[in-house]
Write a structure and sequence with these properties.
Layout lengths: L5 E6 L2 E2 L6 H20 L2 E9 L3 H9 L4 H18 L6 E4 L3 H16 L3 E11 L3 E3 L5 E3 L2 E3 L9 E10 L5 H10 L4 E2 L1 H12 L5 E2 L1 E2 L30 E2 L1 H6 L1 H4 L7 H7 L4 E5 L3 H14 L8 E4 L2 E3 L2 E2 L10 H20 L6 E2 L2 H31 L13 H18 L3 H22 L1 H9 L3 H24 L7 H9 L15 H4 L30
Parallel strand pairs: 1-3, 1-14, 2-3, 3-4, 10-15, 14-15, 16-18
Antiparallel strand pairs: 5-6, 5-9, 7-8, 9-11, 12-13, 16-17
């Protein structure tokens, strides 16, 4: 449909050096929710995620295991794919920095930057983190044992001195300050934007765009004399070195939009509507990346959303610290939707959050098993028992306490969701569910049913009205939660006797905002199905693993 609004969002690409932990996939689950929401709205949606596969550390790890780097990253990428499948992630493309079209995109960006006078040869001398790259001394942590990378304190730093190509980041200081001023919302949350403004105003230094001695990487396409490094047989001259890992990795976002191979697709999808990234790579995405795009004369992304970390007793969750959760173990215990829900309800999407396995299980039991799952189960059970399964229509919204409340709930839910406060969006839905459960307790349909059976016509009418409202409440919450609970939503609709018209990734169905009107299907007669538990309560809280 040519008039469909398009929406392109990306995550940071994950470093393919080990099996992923739940904390690694947190932002991918959040971005998947946003992609599903936009698909269900009817937007022409593209969701990109993937893996970052070039680095000195990956080459070293592969060598330690007696493997070639490509064979090693292939194994790691398969682990990421398995974990994302387990969590119900549905990207439109899973990009790898070893993909051939990505190499072409990197080379074209470098060609443009060089033509613009923004690449020059220089000598780098300083600390290098094999997991992350070059680090300024001011960015490092110093203790009795020496200097450490703040993001990888267990990885030994290397002192390097080598000739590299440098990118003229300093040239773009004024342009970056102007862009921040003219687009005050492009980096969010606000305090993350202010951190970057402070960094920019402190003065920008040029950074390395190549490595001299690293062989596992995209070949740098320009020789020291400025000539193109590709030889007649198509191979690349080793004397040109390789592309610095972060310079290469950032370019994946335009590769995934069709650059440079498919200009028509690139014109459609770029600029990205949203980059979802972690706070540790804010500088790369909101200072270095926009400067690279300016140099290559490519528009900047429209928004960057910076989330925090999952913490365990105040420390960052990580594989190296051994305090991480295995996504497969979490899914085995909570199910795909249960795992998605607790991650995005328990962990704030705009700041650091301290979590534990126990807090996840408590959240699962309280919200999904006790509240939402119980509401659907008792609603379907009572409709079957008291109305022989005939699905009653809800009252018009201004005659129903739940109907009146839904309008404001929906507005707040959409505002929070489209403002990327996913935890708050879920909180709005769960507050409405709590209100619906209170209606059951206050109205006591079992008492109304007994009176109706005895011939009380007023009780009979009220029983139909109350159960009609409860069925509608379950329908609306099930649909609104579908981006978060993609496997549960069709089951809810089936139990309520409604169809679920969306594809497994959220595409192809009716516009979700139309479906979320109170009473949207009030005139459609039908019967509920049989009640089936959606979220069995976890009475035992086993540690994952």
């Amino acid at each position: 449909m040519p008039d469909r609004h398009r929406y392109y969002l990306t995550t940071a690409i994950a470093y393919a050096n080990n099996r992923p932990g739940l904390h690694t996939l947190y932002e991918v689950v959040g971005a998947d929710v946003l992609a599903r929401w936009h698909r269900m709205k009817g937007d022409d949606t593209r969701f990109l995620t993937g893996t970052d596969e070039y680095s000195v550390n990956i080459a070293m790890t592969a060598a330690e295991q007696g493997k070639e780097p490509r064979a090693f990253v292939d194994e790691m990428v398969a682990l990421f794919g398995d974990a994302e499948d387990a969590l119900g992630i549905s990207p439109d493309r899973f990009i790898r920095t070893t993909d051939p079209d990505h190499e072409r995109a990197v080379h074209e960006v470098i060609r443009r930057c060089y033509a613009n006078g923004d690449l020059y040869l220089g000598t780098y001398e300083g600390w290098y983190c094999p997991n992350e790259g070059f680090r300024a001394r001011s960015d490092l942590i110093e203790d009795a044992s020496g200097f450490h990378c703040p993001n990888h304190p267990g990885v030994e730093l290397q002192w390097l001195s080598e000739t590299n190509w440098f990118f003229r980041l300093s040239k773009y200081q004024a342009a970056l300050e102007r862009h921040f001023a003219e687009h005050p919302d492009w980096v969010q949350p606000e305090f993350r934007k202010n951190e970057m403004l402070g960094f920019i105003r402190g003065g920008l230094e040029d950074f390395s765009a190549s490595r001299q001695n690293a062989t596992w990487g995209i070949p740098f396409p320009i020789l020291p004399d400025g000539t193109w490094a590709q030889r007649e047989d198509g191979s690349w001259h080793p004397g040109a070195g390789t592309v610095y890992v972060w310079f290469d990795a950032l370019i994946n976002y335009i590769t995934g939009a069709g650059f440079p191979d498919d200009p028509k697709a690139f014109a459609h999808w770029w600029p990205a509507d949203l980059h979802v990234i972690g706070k540790d790579i804010n500088r790369l995405h909101t200072v270095m990346w926009p400067a690279m795009l300016m140099s290559a004369q490519i528009p900047l992304p429209r928004k960057v959303w910076v989330h925090g970390w999952l913490l365990v007793q105040g420390e960052r969750m990580s594989k190296s610290r051994g305090n991480f959760l295995d996504p497969h173990a979490v899914v085995a215990a909570l199910g795909t939707d249960g795992a998605r829900y607790v991650m995005l309800r328990e962990v704030a999407f705009d700041r650091d959050t301290d979590v534990s396995w126990e807090s996840f299980v408590r959240r699962y039991n309280a919200d999904l098993a006790n509240d939402f799952g119980n509401l659907v189960n008792r609603t379907v059970s009572m409709t079957n028992r008291y109305l022989d399964g005939r699905r009653p229509a809800p009252r018009v919204h201004d005659e129903s306490p739940l109907g009146e409340g839904w309008h404001d709930t929906l507005n707040r839910f959409v505002e929070r969701l489209e403002g990327h406060l996913l935890h708050d969006a879920l909180a709005e839905l769960m507050e409405f569910v709590s209100g619906a459960n209170k209606v059951v307790d206050a109205e006591q349909p079992w008492v109304l049913a007994k009176a109706a059976k005895a011939g009380d016509r007023e009780a009979e009418a009220r029983l139909e009205a109350v159960l009609g409202d409860l069925v509608e409440a379950c329908r609306l919450v099930g649909l609104a939660a579908a981006p978060f609970l993609p496997n549960t939503a069709p089951r809810v609709m089936l139990q309520l006797g409604f169809g679920f018209g969306y594809a497994p990734d959220g595409n192809g169905g009716p516009a979700i905002l139309d479906e979320l009107r109170w009473g949207a299907h009030a005139a459609t007669a039908g019967h509920v199905g049989q009640p089936e538990p959606l979220f069995p309560r976890l009475d035992i809280e086993p540690p994952p693993g």
